[in-house]
Amino acid sequence: MLEDWNKRGDLVRILVARNLKIRYKGSALGFFWSLLTPALTILMYAIFAHILKFNNGQPRYLEYLVGGIIIWGFTAGAMNDALFCIVGNANLVKKVYFPRLILPLTTALASGVNFLLTFVPLVLYLALDGGLDLSRGYWLVPAFVFQLALCTGICCFIGTANVFFRDAQHIVGVGQLAWFFLTPVFYYPEMQIAAFPAPDPLKFLVFLNPMTGVLAMYRRGLMGLELIPREWAAAVPASSVWLSGLVCLAALAAGLAALNAGNRKFGDVL
User: pTM, whole model, 2 decimals?
Assistant: First the structure.
């Protein structure tokens, strides 16, 4: 039994490393792009905000914006890679028996490792710009755990769906764009809460969008921002962010169920 777990662990490490290498295959800079891309993103948005004099009425809006974009990149990257986590390993699926969960899991883990690398330039930028506040850095732990659970569930579900419905890649593209605009990445949570079509006692349901709570946790841990905007603190309790965490875990459970349902037919369809 222990030998089987060791073999599966080795397979997970090999596939994670392979997924990371494929991401930068043929690139002269390789993994350095994981550090360079967020640095260039920060520079690009800094120039853009300066030209348009755009700060959304807040002195640290640029920090808020680039932080949201880099954190969102973890989820977006996992969704894109999920499409081919099973289809792209058709030969392996048809020839070798192993737990199929390993394929979406390693895809999510590779995206997570890449995200941690991109996190370094973000932290450095916040530190240099004076916006870093790690006094509540413990919020980064549940934020990452919930996001990893969400991404694993997404990889299981999308990877399975793409085996049987090749239109999934088009649906994912549209769905990802819609999800991005429904999440407070470039606008503030109070705008999302105010626009949510529900009476004040039910405004907490805005956290049914899992990335709303995940972003709030990251920004709390990195920048010391409030989990709930002050003007909504009376109507929406701070504990509402855990609703997003529960949705992340529910997404993981749903993804595992979808993977288990389609598992037996993967070989025949592929």
Answer: 0.90
